[in-house]
Fold each of these.
Amino acid sequence: MGGVTRSASTAASSRPAGSAGPGSATTSRAVIDLDALAHNARVLADAAGVPWMAVVKADAYGHGLGPVARTCLRAGASWLGVAQLAEALHLREMLDAAGVARPSPDDGPAPEHPRLLCWLAPVLAPERAAAPGSPLRRALNADLDLSVSTTDQLAALAAASAARRAEDPGAAGARIHLKVDTGMSRAGAVEADLPALAVAARAAQEVGDVEVIGLWSHLSRADEPDSGSTEEHLARFRAAETVVRNAGLTPRVRHLAATGGLLWHPASRLDLVRAGIGLYGLSPDPAVATAAELGLRPVMRLEAPLTQVKRVPAGRAVSYGGTWMTPTDRWLGLIPLGYADGLPRAAASAGPVAVGGRRTHVVGKVCMDQVVIDLGPADGSDGAPAAAGDIAVLWGDPTAPGADPATATAQEWAEVCGTIGYEIVTRLGARVPRVCLGAGHEEER
Ligand SMILES: *Cc1c(COP(=O)(O)O)cnc(C)c1O
């Protein structure tokens, strides 16, 4: 299931999970440890103490949507969240195909019939929204919950819903979550605009076109526990709730916290938390607590077999622009991954790589499809320290059973590249096969 996700059998390996020895892969690949994912889900769910949404936008942060979504449902997620409508429609198709039931209007969400929230549905003119086959009609047919920040969005959805109900009087109204801006100034209604939105939502609910399920917002500085920002967000959220209730609405699902809020601001957990990065085994902010300190295990291991190992004389320039020079006679290795696969160019002469239990790094610039790594001095007559076909691990979990202990984490790559762990895993290119290990993929064990 899932576009770029290859089943274990197409990238077969007879080696044990976590093995990074020669021959464990014939192409570059991202190994996705579904057991680590399930473990992280349990850690976060236990901390949250309330129902949780698995945030699986952007192909599950680069990990592969289908297996991640199904593992999270098995681990107890009752909601799945994505940003774009196309992602949500794709997710619903996959869940339908996997036999996962849709929610019925009467039951609350549960892992057996999860709700899907999509927060970036397009804004259309009402007549376009109402047309058969319009994106919003498709959203409603897919039983999505949709976020609404403005009266224009509401009008479009209400029009789509009214047109649908005209054809099928039994159809329920659009399930919406009113989004308020509690201090991030991204999506959501600000204080001045919320009363009109609430009144319009109430009117649309009265005629059955929508049902206001949720009230929600997003924290902008949850990783700065002492800044006071989250308390301000919460105060604005409470004020918004009063406005909405005064308009006669009773949103049952109030949600504000992503991983950072869930971990570091208990008061923000409300009725539902939306967990993203923590599921994938990365900390929202290692300056507050590292993934290891949080008990989270990195889910993705990016590895590739060396395509060439060679001895290069001292003083040779390496890669485009010759920005790195061999300081001595040198052993160099070639990895078939480049910026087209998501390696940041900022990793030039820095990105950490583990080969055969030793830590080394990228030398010279990152090319589109390849990078060169240093394998050490070639003094004396010793043989090559590695061979073509040996596995180079770019990032993963150094503490996983069987892992190369020299493995760097995606977080270390982020630090070297001046970015955040989120970006390192999410930008992994579509052409890197995702190969799943663990729950439901026992054939790889
Ligand atoms: C991405 C996202 C999340 C998940 O955030 P994490 O920090 O990855 O847990 C939650 N809510 C919204 C609205 C998001 O866009």
Amino acid sequence: MFHRVTFRSLLLLALCAALVHGEEKPIEETNSSLPLKKAERCTVDKCQLPNCRCSGLRLPSAEFQGREKEIPQLITITFDDAVNVINYEQYQQLFQGLVNPDNCTASGTFYVSHEYTDYTLVNALYQQGHEIALHSITHGSGTDYWREADVEQIMAEFGQQIEMLEQFAKVNRRHIRGMRLPFLQIAGNNSFEAAKRLDLLYDSSWPTQRYRNPAMWPYTLDYRSVQDCQIGPCPQASIPGFWVNPMVSWVDTQGYSCAMIDACIFPPKDDVDALFQWMLENFKRHYEGNRAPFGMYLHAAWFQRGRHNFEAFRKFLLHVNKLPDVYLTTASRVIHYMKHPTLGRPFHSCPKKPRTTCVKQNCALRKVETGEMRYMNVCDSCPTVYPWLGNPLGTTAY
Ligand SMILES: *[C@@H]1O[C@H](CO)[C@@H](O)[C@H](O)[C@H]1NC(C)=O
Ligand SMILES: *[C@@H]1O[C@H](CO)[C@@H](O)[C@H](O)[C@H]1NC(C)=O
Ligand SMILES: *[C@@H]1O[C@H](CO)[C@@H](O)[C@H](O)[C@H]1NC(C)=O
Ligand SMILES: [Zn+2]
């Protein structure tokens, strides 16, 4: 599913960790005291696939020039925040019966935050072939928290969340490849340095308005990014081999940009056809243009906000799912494609669905920080207290 070298080095690390006698060492190889290099201007001769790509509008391969109609159109459907029993049912209905032209099942990406998440449902999404990705433990108190976070803080929020997902949802950490910051608030170099040190592959928090027509493709941070900085500070350091999956904005009915569908200020009226046509217009900028991946970014709460939002969304998915060259896939598969771009069929094989066993436990736990009670469904066995930043496995009361 992922690039072979990465997989092998991870395997090697896992083996080393095992040799060190069960020490649950997080996968980090870089040193915090190493200064970052300033990112230089990108040139194609210095920056080549599979592990380097300049930012911008260039097609994934020079050979694609003039053959845009043969580039497979990838669509990423992503949802942020807690997974619970209400939105889980919506996700089931949304993806029901959708099969890509290569006969692999359609899948989405879930940027999960910890609080109120039902980990047994995360496990179910994972086993269905969806991507489970990171959206932090605390979700923070606002944009200041994330803008000012240092590398250690960001590593704690996301690194400890990996431990939670492993422990409570039985997600293999090798399958956790990406993150999205709460409020899309990046912290300059720090977010990306932290992500890289956690051995993640990509971030998908950075919106672009300037590069929506034609649309921007994913790229790496080896060299300076040309992407417009909408919610700064943006990184200036070189973060080799780390991918940015830019959030290419949609346009609302008044011409304003929105990074996420549910953030549009002037959406169409609450009517299935008006919503459907609007989605189609946004889609066509990609599909009839350079075929850069088309992102559908939202929160499940949007389905409650308008009576016809869900129906319109589903209608749109059924429509694009009939097109012979459109693939509904995960963000990490998009990066995989970017590393090995091809015309026509984008992937050699279907992603293997993970098989895990998850015996549901309903746990009533005290949140040490506030004294509140929280109910939490997890796989296999309950923690002692409500897990939180600093105590991700909820092992001891103090
Ligand atoms: C990592 O950083 C520490 C200081 O924090 C230093 O003593 C050590 O030599 C560094 N290791 C490497 C491999 O750079
Ligand atoms: C990011 O890192 C680069 C390279 O070390 C440095 O020049 C720049 O000042 C850093 N930016 C911030 C906001 O720390
Ligand atoms: C997908 O399945 C259909 C029906 O089972 C078959 O006709 C078609 O050739 C398959 N396509 C691919 C790409 O395997
Ligand atoms: Zn969020």
